[in-house]
Amino acid sequence: MSAPGLHVTRIGDAGPVVAFCHGLFGQGKNWTQVAKDLAADHRVLLIDMPNHGRSPWTEAFDYLQLADLVADALRDEGPVALVGHSMGGKIAMVLALRHPELVERLVVVDVSPTAYSSGREFVGYIETMRALDLSALERRDQADEALREAVPDTTVRSFLLQNLRRGDDGWHWQVNLDLLGEEMDALVGWPDEELGDASYDGPVLWVGGALSDYVTDEHAPEMDRRFPRNRRVMVKGAGHWVHSQQPAVLTEVLRRFLAR
């Protein structure tokens, strides 16, 4: 799998390094506000995951290989505090399990080390985005209107449309929709067998959205087995998108954990 040179945005000039791994359909810049809030005391890395943003695409979706690519981007930074949300949370977990020397501490936001039953909602978004006739677009607001019926939630629609870019040859999607649609089972899955008995003994913070079902008591045994030094925090008033729904609370939780 070849995807050299993942795109990294750097914020902050001094202090220990904190690196962020975003979720599906996202980009590193989704965490810009949190990064700015932490930048007084930290050097923050916002990484575009493979197949997203300005990072290269891959030929397959494999959490072990994706984690290795992110590890390559961090190798010259020394041990970092690693934060991952959703898909990026799984990449971050696998990275910590495979390359523990690179991870000083780990924060996992609203995802568990488990295979989820379905990515039907995500598949629906991908099908809707792929069905958009990009050649007929003249303005971005036309794309917004075209997606309105299939994606009525304004916030979700805006989030998906951040992947739409206009180049010299017209509009295109930055995110690798074909691969993600074809590999949805792997994306919602978890490489349990491939990881063997690997565990990570550094400090781990789980941050779940109280209105989400991605982190529940039934996931705790596997969380404890793989990450024995974990503690869990549930954020009230937040679903899966904790960093956009309760940014101030999440930032304060992160700041306290990073200061320990």
SSE layout and pairing:
Elements: E1 8-11, E2 17-21, H1 32-38, E3 43-47, H2 63-74, E4 80-85, H3 87-98, E5 103-109, H4 120-131, H5 140-147, H6 154-161, E6 164-167, E7 170-173, H7 177-182, H8 184-188, H9 192-195, E8 204-209, H10 220-226, E9 230-235, H11 242-245, H12 247-259
Parallel strand pairs: 2-3, 2-4, 4-5, 5-8, 8-9
Antiparallel strand pairs: 1-3, 6-7
Structure characterization notes:
The structure is a single chain. The protein has 12 helices and 9 strands. It has 260 residues and is an alpha/beta fold. A 7-stranded mixed sheet has the order 1-3-2-4-5-8-9, sandwiched between helices. α1 crosses α12 and α2 crosses α3. The mean pLDDT is 94.
In terms of per-residue confidence, which ranges show pLDDT below 50 for 5 or more consecutive residues? none
| First-to-last CA distance | 37 Å
Strand content: 15-25%
Instruction: Please count the beta strands (DSSP E, at least 2 residues each).
Output: 9
Spatially, the strands of the biggest sheet line up as 1-3-2-4-5-8-9
Mean pLDDT: 94
Number of helical elements: 12
Shape: globular
